[in-house]
DNA sequence: CAGGTTTCTGCGTTTTTTTGCAGGAATTGC
DNA sequence: GCAATTCCTGCAAAAAAACGCAGAAACCTG
């Protein structure tokens, strides 16, 4: 078999099945593994395939990604996310809501972290999937197209069965008097369930959203264990929360 | 034998078999390898053939083997998808697997269609979410990072609770004798459940995957109701499936 | 047709390409 | 951490290609 022919066969197989194992290829074509490896390497250099340990993947399959278009206040959100990752330890079960702050958190996870992350938000789940070690559990149910998360009784029931160690909530509005509030009824139902199930509730909020109120109530301040903002913990605007017994980071 | 005669013979052989070996040519025509090599070189310079180490290939060989589209065989997959959408009617519950063929189906859905689509594949779900009217139900569970779908007992249990009207399966390999086969154990478990639950099972497969076999069995041909390929239904390669009682489109 | 020129062909040698193998390093999974 | 793969590096053998050359054939051309 000629070299080009072999490479054409390999490429064909990759495109057909989205992946190939070097071991199976070398028995199929009946050449040494080194030859296969060199072929895969050449094809990878030409950009035809993606070489991975033990074989190769089709390029078209890996193209699912989310645009990182101008997230509002990204800098502050990154600061919040970096404080938040400090709370996550190996082996923990972590439940998260959706939202851009949580997206930022997902991007900040240290590569060596081994934990289990649970969410119903599609964009967040996509971000978790890029991480090498974390387990990702997706809450299923009807999808709310505008918030891009799963909502409904099935999702709520599933959350109530769990007892995650941490629950990170991206917030729309938080106020020392009214607690966390939001404007989407279905999302609020979900967040209520998340708070109820979790051992520790961590609220992520940029300073702008502090002391703002939305129509639907999620929970009171007494249900929040930790509040993370981009501000230093001693900031005056945060003192009402400290007084309410919340740990502010 | 004259030079022109020889080159005509070589060209004929290349077009006939898509490849020639210089070694076999030089015994057939009974000239030295150098002569053959010079002939091949001339033909290559004229663009009639593609010279490779050890022989030559026809140009058509190279074209079919190295597609330039993003998704492999996208044209064929679109043809399949367009046949498939014809089966979907307003109000139906449709369960789908993952894969690029299903992705194509998702993109082909007519904008005025009102139906409910259920899947555990993240890329496919993203595609459904762009549609203005369809309801999207996401099957939740642990996410398999390489296949980008939810797998596990929760997902299977959820599927078994449903009774969708249609089930579209993207296939990795299908054969009249062995039925549908695949190479990922967890995905196979899921597909089995999907087949079991659904009123009608529709198998989408590009012709290339017909009569190929993978290590793990999903189901036999008797479980398939409809088979859709890019070929016309009367094609000879499809007759074994027609004889097995499958409706071929 | 004779002589010169060009083209073609085969041979020996050198160079390049390809392939497999052995070892040590890196990685993956348990 | 340990065992098992898998990967990389250098190396050597085999195959193929390139090169130079010379004899032979074909082809002008007067």
Number of helices of chain A: 9
The CATH architecture category of the largest domain in chain A equals 3-Layer(aba) Sandwich
Order of helices and strands of chain A: HEHHEEHEHEHEEEHEEEHEEEHE
- The end-to-end distance of chain A, rounded to whole angstroms, is 65 Å
Q: How big a fraction of the residues of chain A is strand? A: 15-25%
CATH superfamily of the largest domain in chain A: Translation initiation factor eif-2b, domain 2
CATH topology of the largest domain in chain A: Rossmann fold
Which CATH class of the largest domain in chain A applies here? Answer: Alpha Beta
Which whole number gives the mean pLDDT of chain A?
86
| Helix/strand/pairing category of chain A | alpha/beta
Largest interface, counted by CB within 8 Å of the partner chain's CB: A-B, 39 and 48 residues
- Count of discrete structural domains of chain A: 2
Largest sheet of chain A: 7 strands, parallel
Oligomer: homodimer
Global Rg of chain A: 23 Å
What does this structure look like?
2 copies of one chain form a homodimer. The first copy, chain A, has helices at residues 3-17, 22-29, 33-45, 74-85, 100-108, 122-129, 153-160, 185-197, 239-243; strands at residues 19-21, 49-52, 55-58, 93-96, 116-119, 135-138, 141-144, 149-151, 166-170, 173-175, 179-182, 200-204, 216-219, 226-228, 247-248. Chain A has 249 residues and is α/β, with parallel strands linked by helices. Chain A has 2 domains: 3-62, Winged helix-like DNA-binding domain superfamily/Winged helix DNA-binding domain (Arc Repressor Mutant, subunit A, Orthogonal Bundle), CATH 1.10.10.10; 74-248, Rossmann fold, CATH 3.40.50. In chain A, the strands form 4 sheets. The first copy, chain A, has a 7-stranded parallel β-sheet with strand order 6-5-4-9-12-14-15, sandwiched between helices. A 3-stranded antiparallel β-sheet of chain A has the order 1-3-2. In chain A, helix 2 packs across helix 3 (33-45), helix 5 runs parallel beside helix 6 and helix 7 runs parallel beside helix 8 (185-197). The longest helix of chain A is centred in the N-terminal third of the chain and has 15 residues, at 3-17. The radius of gyration of chain A is 23 Å and the shape is elongated. The N and C termini of chain A lie far apart (65 Å). The A-B interface holds A 2-5, 8, 11-12, 15-19, 48, 58, 60-61, 63-64, 120, 122, 125-126, 128-129, 135-143, 145, 148, 150, 154-155, 158 and B 19, 21, 50, 52-55, 57, 61-62, 65-67, 70-73, 100, 120, 122-123, 125-126, 128-129, 135-143, 145-146, 148, 150, 154-155, 158, 172-173, 183, 208-209, 212, 214. Chain A binds a DNA duplex (30 and 30 nucleotides) through helix 3.
């Amino acid at each position: 078999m000629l070299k080009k022919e072999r490479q054409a066969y390999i490429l064909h197989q990759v495109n057909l099945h989205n992946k190939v194992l070097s071991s199976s290829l070398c028995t199929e074509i009946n050449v040494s593994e080194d030859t296969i490896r060199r072929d895969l390497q050449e094809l990878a250099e030409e950009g035809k395939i993606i070489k991975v340990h033990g074989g190769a993947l089709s390029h078209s399959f890996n193209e699912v990604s989310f645009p990182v278009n101008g997230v509002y206040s990204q800098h502050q959100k990154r600061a919040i996310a970096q404080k938040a990752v400090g709370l996550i330890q190996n082996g923990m079960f972590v439940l998260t809501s959706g939202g851009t702050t949580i997206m930022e958190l997902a991007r900040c996870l240290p590569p060596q972290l081994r934990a289990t992350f649970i969410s119903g938000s599609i964009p967040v789940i996509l971000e978790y999937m890029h991480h090498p070690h974390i387990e990702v559990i997706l809450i299923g149910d009807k999808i709310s197209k505008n918030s891009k998360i799963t909502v409904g009784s099935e999702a709520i029931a599933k959350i109530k069965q769990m007892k995650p160690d941490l629950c990170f909530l991206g917030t729309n509005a938080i106020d020392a008097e009214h607690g966390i509030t939001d404007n989407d009824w279905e999302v609020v139902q979900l967040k209520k369930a998340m708070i109820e199930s979790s051992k520790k509730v961590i609220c992520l909020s940029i300073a702008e959203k502090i002391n703002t109120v939305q129509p639907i109530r999620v929970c009171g301040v007494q249900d929040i264990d930790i509040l993370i903002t981009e501000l230093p913990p001693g900031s005056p605007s945060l003192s009402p929360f400290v007084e309410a017994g919340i740990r502010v980071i």
